What does this fold into?
Amino acid sequence: MLWKPSPLDYEVPPSSWFQKKMEETLFTPDSLDIGNRKVTRMFIYDEMLPGRHRFDLIDALGTRRATAFTLDKFVLWRTKMGKESYPVPLTGKYTSYPPATPMAVKGEIWDIFSPQVFELDSWKLNGVEFLRQRVYLILPYRDRFKFPMQVGKDMVKTYLSPQKEQIVSAEMYVGIPEHWEDMLTDYHLRPVKHYTPGDNTTFNSWEDPYYFFTPGEYNL
It folds into this structure.
């Protein structure tokens, strides 16, 4: 009897196929986990924010959820690359000029279509320059109450409650110290500008100083 191939038999793809797949997942060691999710919740604080030079990476493949601040403190450094500058959050104490103090980092929570995470990992060189890791975030908010100013009138007055906070988690690209620590000089990296309550850019229900990568950083 002639041998008949099993329904499970298949043609082995060429080596170029395997090479392409290895390149696609090179910076995503948790590719199986990512592939099983429809969306991945990310904390975006960097050049992928709206109005920054790589917003295109998430614009059509993500949904903005909220403004948030990191629970952990970082020093948010910035590369000196003009219009292509980007921030690098690092933990720990480093000597620099001007001096830099660990603070919360302000950003936005986005739900990213999971297949796009592979491209983000490649862009951020996940595992080489940055490490995508889960962090805790603080969502500050105030409840709004509206009361009529006069009975039978349409005019109302709005009152805000004291600040409240909700803790959530998301994945964030954090700088790998071993890659960046030798660059912490005035020539290579500079601290991102920080803000305090009362500044025009301060989120109206946040009370602590924080770093925020604004478009103005491109001109510094």
